[in-house]
């Protein structure tokens, strides 16, 4: 049985500031979720980075924008895109805003893998965090608020929405 995310929350030294505790907590949650996701059985076998890519591909995105959202090098995004395309999970298509540019889009199989990932992330997080639905919403709102100002911009500096 996995150890709950909140089991050892009181073991931190008392002199840790709220900021340090927040960072330690965020790292612990990410590490725990990544470990538990790797233990999960999925219908499509994807690496952690490939699964992250699939999550960010709705709507379709250009590779440079996707690399920024994933915190990855463009060359690694290209290699992952090739692998996912070879397995029928995504396709390259012309960007409707700029016919010279290409973007990546999920196929039906890719959307199924994305949906399955969301379902498992949500289930594991609810179980392991011991947070109520309201607390999860508050945590999510605060986590998004704390993102860097440029997180939601594409390579041109524009919000892609």
From TrEMBL:
PROSITE patterns: HTH_MARR_2
Residues covered by the HTH marR-type domain: 1-148
Molecular function GO labels: DNA-binding transcription factor activity
InterPro entries the UniProt entry points to: HTH_MarR-typ (IPR000835), MarR/SlyA-like (IPR039422), WH-like_DNA-bd_sf (IPR036388), WH_DNA-bd_sf (IPR036390)
Highest rank taxon of the organism: Bacteria
Database matches in Gene3D superfamilies: Winged helix-like DNA-binding domain superfamily/Winged helix DNA-binding domain
Biological process (GO), any one: response to stress
SUPFAM superfamilies: Winged helix' DNA-binding domain (SSF46785)
Name of the protein in its database record: MarR family transcriptional regulator
Organism: Shimia isoporae
Lineage: Bacteria, Pseudomonadati, Pseudomonadota, Alphaproteobacteria, Rhodobacterales
């Amino acid at each position: 049985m996995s150890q709950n995310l909140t089991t050892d929350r009181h073991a931190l030294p008392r002199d840790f500031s709220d900021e340090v505790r927040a960072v330690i907590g965020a790292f612990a949650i990410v590490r725990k979720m990544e470990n538990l996701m790797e233990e999960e059985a999925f219908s499509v076998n994807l690496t952690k980075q490939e699964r992250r890519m699939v999550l960010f591909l709705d709507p379709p995105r250009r590779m440079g924008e996707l690399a920024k959202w994933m915190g990855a090098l463009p060359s690694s995004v290209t290699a992952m895109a090739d692998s996912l395309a070879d397995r029928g999970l995504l396709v390259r298509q012309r960007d409707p805003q700029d016919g010279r540019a290409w973007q990546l889009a999920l196929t039906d199989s890719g959307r199924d893998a994305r949906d399955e990932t969301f379902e498992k992330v949500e289930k594991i997080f609810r179980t392991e965090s011991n947070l109520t639905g309201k607390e999860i919403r508050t945590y999510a709102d605060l986590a998004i608020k704390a993102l860097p100002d440029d997180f939601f911009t594409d390579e041109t500096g524009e919000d892609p929405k």
